[in-house]
Design brief:
By secondary structure, this protein is α/β, with parallel strands linked by helices. The protein has helices spanning about 5-10, 35-40, 55-70, 80-85, 100-110, 125-140, 155-165, 200-205, 230-250, 355-370, 375-395, 410-415, and strands at about 20-25, 45-50, 75-80, 90-95, 115-120, 145, 170-175, 260-265, 275-285, 290-295, 300-305, 310-315, 325, 400, 405-410. Strands 13-12-11-7-10-9-8-14-15 form a nine-stranded mixed beta sheet.
Length: about 425
């Protein structure tokens, strides 16, 4: 009797043969989970086989979406990320969980020898980020951060112009971020304590953070507006425009020496208590000053490098500005710095640069074992200025930073904010 082999097993349906596929499990189906999962599934050599979420409602959405994509019912649902990561057939994981869960899920993935596509910010505190970096390096994992702007053409071009010295010596950088809060869930008046819905394991969801009464307005997606689980617009966006600022300055392996800032905060016991407006000044090597601001009209959203011979500004493209402007009108027409001028070429994620190239780059690096465009060390360093700015605002004074030792100098009280206590029984490995 003949044996029939499905076309998909041989790759005849346009997909790679099973031996060439990267098998992925996803953790988190909130804001970034759906887009990341669909981006990975669009790659022919990737197959998503498992989904994990602590709320049965989005978990079912994840499973249904994945199964519909493949035309089967093979995706398995998980409540506990540790159980999913223990599967030996899974090569990599996509992590899109609240900030207070970043460290524990990432470290477990490393322990289980999974490569990782992890959302920014790298973690809620600098100490957690250090632990993630250590775990990735010790377990020789491939890491891609969801700082996808490095895979988009206008951001790469802007950073490359700066790196090639076309604006002269960089003297200042402006990093414009959002201010305020955004009600992603349209919760309206759902800002008072209630019982958690039966579909959500709220105790597990709080996890290592401090237990707080359940309030619908500060869980899914809106968790970022309370310092117990997130860190507001400053940390939410620093991994994008702050990351690009570092790329253009060639500061992926260095950091500021002094940080000071002011912020406007709601009451500490407010449901949403993260800073709604902030402005921070950071001193860097080479006499470069960085200003990070949210909610101020004079600092435009995006990244602007200012040099002795000109300036370049980049942002996410809109219909009116294309996400790029500069002191030299000629630069607007470039796709990249011309070959005859370029002495430095920055990492190119794929032949065609767009957000999809970021997923392609991750999968290519899983196969080649070469670093991605946003490896864990870069993600860590890009967020340090944001974390230090928040610490300076909370401490109410200037802080000095030893970038090599990654320590605050001469301020024990501020140093305590580099980490935070975990709720038992959770521990930072």
């Amino acid at each position: 009797m003949p044996t029939f082999i499905p076309a998909s097993a041989l790759g005849a349906d346009g997909r790679a043969a099973p031996s060439e596929r990267i098998v992925v499990g996803i953790v988190g189906w909130g804001m970034m989970g759906p887009g990341n999962t669909k981006g990975l599934m669009a790659q022919k050599d990737c197959q998503v086989v498992a989904a994990c979420d602590l709320d049965k409602r989005p978990l079912q959405q994840a499973v249904d979406t994945i199964n519909k994509n493949y035309g089967n019912t093979d995706c398995k649902a998980y409540h506990d990320y540790r159980e999913m990561m223990a599967r030996t057939d899974i090569n990599a994981v996509m992590l899109a969980v609240p900030d207070h869960w970043h460290a524990l899920t990432a470290i477990e993935a490393c322990r289980q020898k999974k490569d990782i596509y992890g959302e920014k910010p790298l973690a809620r505190t600098i100490a957690e980020q250090q632990a993630i970096v250590k775990a990735v390096q010790a377990n020789k994992r491939i890491w891609q951060t969801g700082s996808w702007q490095r895979s988009v053409a206008n951001f790469r071009k802007g950073a490359e112009i700066v790196r090639n010295g076309l604006i002269g010596k960089v003297i200042a950088v402006e990093v414009g971020l959002p201010g305020g809060h955004v009600d992603f869930r349209k919760t309206g008046d759902k800002m008072t304590p209630t019982s958690p819905p039966p579909e959500l394991d709220y105790d597990m969801w709080i996890g290592p953070a401090q237990m707080m009464p359940y309030i619908e307005g500060r869980v899914h997606m809106n968790w970022r507006w309370n310092y117990n689980t997130g860190a507001g617009q400053l940390i939410d966006w620093m991994g994008h425009h702050g990351d690009i600022a570092h790329w253009g300055m060639d500061f992926d392996r260095t950091g500021p020496t002094e940080v000071e800032g002011v912020g406007e905060f709601p009451p500490k016991d407010a449901v949403w208590n993260t800073a709604t407006k902030y402005r921070c000044t950071l001193k860097y090597p080479k006499n470069v000053t960085m200003t990070i601001a949210g909610g101020y009209q004079d600092i435009k959203m995006g990244t602007k490098w200012i040099g002795t011979n000109g300036w370049v500004w980049v942002n996410r493209a809109s219909s009116t500005d294309g996400g790029f402007d500069s002191s030299n009108p000629e630069w607007k027409d470039w796709t990249e710095v011309p070959e005859k001028i370029a002495k430095t070429r920055l990492y190119r994620s794929a032949e065609v640069l767009n957000q999809q190239a970021h997923y392609r780059n991750f999968l290519d690096c899983v196969k080649s074992r070469k670093p991605t465009v946003t490896p864990v060390e870069t993600a860590h360093n890009s967020l340090i200025p944001g974390h230090l700015s928040l610490i300076a605002m909370m401490a109410g004074r200037k802080i000095k930073w030893d970038a090599k030792k990654e320590k605050i100098i001469g301020d024990d009280e501020a140093s305590q904010l580099l980490t935070r206590a975990y709720r038992a029984p959770w521990q930072l490995a």
